[in-house]
Design brief:
It comes from Aegilops tauschii subsp. strangulata (Goatgrass). InterPro entries: PNGase_A, PNGaseA_N. This is Peptide N-acetyl-beta-D-glucosaminyl asparaginase amidase A N-terminal domain-containing protein. Keywords: Signal. By secondary structure, the chain is mostly beta strands. It has a domain at about 35-120 and about 135-200: Jelly Rolls. The protein has six helices and 29 strands. The strands form five sheets. Strands 19, 20, 21, 22, 23, 24, 25, 26, 27, 28 and 29 form an eleven-stranded antiparallel beta sheet that branches. The protein has a five-stranded mixed beta sheet with strand order 1-7-4-9-2. Strands 10, 11, 13, 16 and 18 form a five-stranded antiparallel beta sheet that branches. Residues about 1-40 and about 580-604 have low confidence and may be disordered. Bound molecules: 2-acetamido-2-deoxy-beta-D-glucopyranose (7 copies). One 2-acetamido-2-deoxy-beta-D-glucopyranose binds near residues 566 and 567.
């Protein structure tokens, strides 16, 4: 993540998600890489554009639904947009939405589609889309090539039904800079697609009200909060309707600049002992803490999204990194705390990041369910347990070589009851996290190997005096392995080898009055690449990526096994059969015996 000089002079924390920012661990050689590269620029500019994509399962309209009815929300070319106000457009609910309601139909599915093209040379840029202050998409742009690229991102936004039904404002912040070198302008269309079912909405499915916990316009930035260090707490005070009976916080998170590769950061002792002024530190553990007043209500141990310029940009062309086009969000059920919040007064919703370095972009949407049959609900917090983070570091190094093993765990649980026209309902929400990160430097600090696993379990149990109404358990595991090594350094030229494996393994089981559902996802990428760098430009290189995506759920199945090499898809198999015979999951990576000796190392 380098920053264009123009940006660097303005605001350090606004450093864009640029390509890579890979200072050498070696004190003598602090390199910042800026790809787009020369060889990419020399391609035949009249060749057809390349389509970039993130592997995901298709969003399927529910059986029996009709649509889509589509509305263009915004169309814009993002050129000189860095540090400028977000681009906005008035939002009016599409007429088909009111018409559907009038005939007794209801929203079955809403999909937000971002389509974009770009040509030339440009960094990867983080961007956000907000509707009436509530974030509805966090994403990263694809890096263009001389011949042009196109890509699209679709996100299921049905859970924002309450917002979609009201007039408001769409805002997009995508901070881009264009000059003689970085020529890419992002041309974007943002479209909403709606599908309807011929029946009224199922009760309680989606929130009645969505309250943004974000910064209000006008701004010369995104509506996200920027958390810049370990003591920085960004917060917003607000009051909630007195007839709320359920509340869920949906948190958006992305990390940039000094913390873009937080999971590879060494401890500060190592940096100080080796006088590595350009290597970001604070160790390799990060978590987002969410507080309501003085209570830690939950945490986010984020998936390690690698943006389209990360590690080696050639890895992510055209298959982009998991989550990079559609960053995951994280739900924290705060219903147990309604007893504290239903007093009509303002309460403070705050975000902090343990060990943070500049910068984390965080905001949230508070989804609220309202009791239409009463003016006032009454809650009480029955049980609450949130012990401090357990964090330990096993550290040993000599000069630039060393091994650091970091372990962490956290547990939060809360139980509370709410009396409403639905009776007295008790909700328990818990989260249980564990984490281990091994960071090993060898060959005089020129090879770095990071192996990390985040394990996050959470659950919601809802019961009234006679029965269990809902029981949901979610288990997520995020494995990550990053090898980086440099070799053949002569002056300002060197070679970089990188190997990245990352994945999301997720299982959830939901049962209750409305039925039973099960979801299991195994999504794994294995990517390796080389590049030759000269004077901070990639002069040649090659990236190969293999991804296996396997989803099995009560709502259907999806499988895809796809490989790319040097911008080209070399194999692609997919299917949506739920049969047992589909190919096995998980990416296998056999280490290449021909890999050159690991001589020098670079640090992400
Ligand atoms: C290790 O790297 C440092 C910094 O680049 C250099 O000064 C030193 O000579 C290297 N040591 C060896 C044994 O190569
Ligand atoms: C550039 O690509 C176009 C279309 O692929 C082709 O017709 C043309 O001959 C190419 N030009 C050169 C100089 O390679
Ligand atoms: C945006 O929509 C316009 C009008 O339909 C179309 O000409 C243009 O190609 C679209 N651009 C993208 C990036 O989809
Ligand atoms: C942390 O960030 C906040 C917000 O930018 C700033 O006010 C504060 O001085 C910073 N603290 C340290 C220790 O750098
Ligand atoms: C540490 O680095 C700074 C700047 O990079 C340099 O001026 C200084 O001499 C170095 N100190 C040691 C002890 O290597
Ligand atoms: C990463 O570490 C885990 C154990 O913590 C191990 O099972 C796994 O094989 C390691 N991955 C790699 C690629 O070395
Ligand atoms: C990668 O593809 C380009 C054309 O798109 C070709 O010119 C180049 O030689 C290829 N590189 C390798 C290492 O295969």
């Amino acid at each position: 993540m380098a920053s264009p000089a123009a940006a660097a002079s303005s605001h350090l924390h606004l450093l864009l998600i640029a390509l890579l920012f890979l200072p050498f661990a070696a004190a003598a050689a602090p390199h910042r890489h800026r790809v787009p590269s020369r060889h990419l620029a020399s391609l035949n500019a009249s060749a057809p554009p390349t389509t970039f994509f993130e592997v995901d399962r298709p969003i399927r309209p529910p059986l029996g639904s009709v649509g889509p009815c589509s509305a263009l929300l915004l169309s814009h070319s993002f050129g000189e947009t860095y540090g400028r106000p977000p681009v906005t457009a008035a939002y009016a609910p599409p007429e088909c939405l009111a018409a559907a309601r009038a005939r007794g139909a209801s929203l079955a599915l809403a999909v937000l589609e971002w389509t974009a093209d770009c040509r030339g040379r440009q960094f990867d840029r983080i961007f956000g889309v907000w509707l009436s202050g509530a974030e509805i998409l966090r994403s990263c742009t694809a890096e263009p090539r001389a011949t042009g690229i196109v890509w699209s991102v679709s996100r299921d936004v049905t859970r924002y039904a309450a917002l979609l039904a009201e007039p408001g404002e769409v805002a997009v912040y995508l901070g881009n800079l264009v000059d003689k070198t970085y020529t890419g302008v992002y041309h974007v269309n943002l479209t909403l697609h709606l599908y309807f079912r011929p029946a009224p909405p199922p009760l309680t499915q989606h929130a009645d009200l969505i309250v943004p916990i974000s910064r209000s316009l006008p701004l010369n930035d995104g509506q996200w909060f920027a958390v810049q260090n370990a003591t920085d707490v960004q917060s917003k005070s607000l009051s909630i309707p007195s007839n709320t009976y359920r509340a869920v916080l949906e948190v958006f998170v992305s990390f940039h600049s000094s913390d873009e590769f937080w999971y590879t950061n060494p401890p500060n002792e190592y940096i100080e002992a080796n006088n590595l002024s350009s290597v970001p530190g604070n160790g390799a553990f990060r978590e987002v803490i969410v507080k309501v007043d003085d209570h830690v209500v939950g945490a986010v141990w984020p998936f390690t999204v690698i943006y389209t310029g990360g590690v080696n940009p050639l890895l992510w062309r055209p298959i982009t990194g998991i989550g990079s086009f559609n960053l995951p969000t994280y739900d924290i059920d705060i219903t147990p705390f309604l007893g504290k919040l239903l007093d009509g007064k303002e309460h403070d919703f705050g975000f902090a990041v343990t060990n943070a370095l500049d910068v984390w972009y965080i905001d949230a949407n508070l989804h609220l369910w309202l009791d239409h049959k009463s003016k006032k609900t009454v809650g009480s917090l029955i049980g609450y347990d949130a012990p401090a983070l357990a964090l330990n570091l096993d550290s040993g190094f000599s000069g630039l070589d060393g091994k650091f093993v970091t372990g962490a765990s956290r547990h939060v649980s809360a139980t509370g009851s709410v009396k409403s026209s639905y009776g007295e309902v008790t909700t328990t929400f818990y989260q249980r996290f564990s984490y281990v990160n091994s960071n090993v430097y060898t060959n005089n600090g020129t090879v770095q190997v990071v192996n990390q696993t985040i394990d996050a379990k959470s659950g919601v149990f809802v019961k009234d005096t006679s029965a269990v109404l809902l029981s949901e358990e979610v288990h997520k595991v995020f494995p990550l392995y990053v090898y980086t090594g440099t070799s053949d350094q002569v002056g300002d030229e060197y070679s970089l080898i990188s190997l990245v494996k990352l994945g999301i393994n997720e299982k959830s089981v939901l049962g209750g009055k409305l039925g039973f559902s099960y979801r299991s996802l195994r999504n794994a990428q294995s990517a390796r690449g080389t590049m030759k760098v000269k004077k901070n430009l990639v002069v040649s290189g090659l990236g190969k990526t293999h991804q296996v995506y396997k989803y099995v759920g009560t709502d259907g199945c999806y499988f895809r096994d796809v490989s790319s090499k040097n911008y080209t898809i070399i194999s692609d198999n997919s299917g949506d059969s739920c049969s047992k015979g589909s190919p096995s999951s998980g990416v296998k990576f056999s280490s290449n015996k021909n890999q050159p000796a690991r001589k020098r190392l670079l640090k992400l």
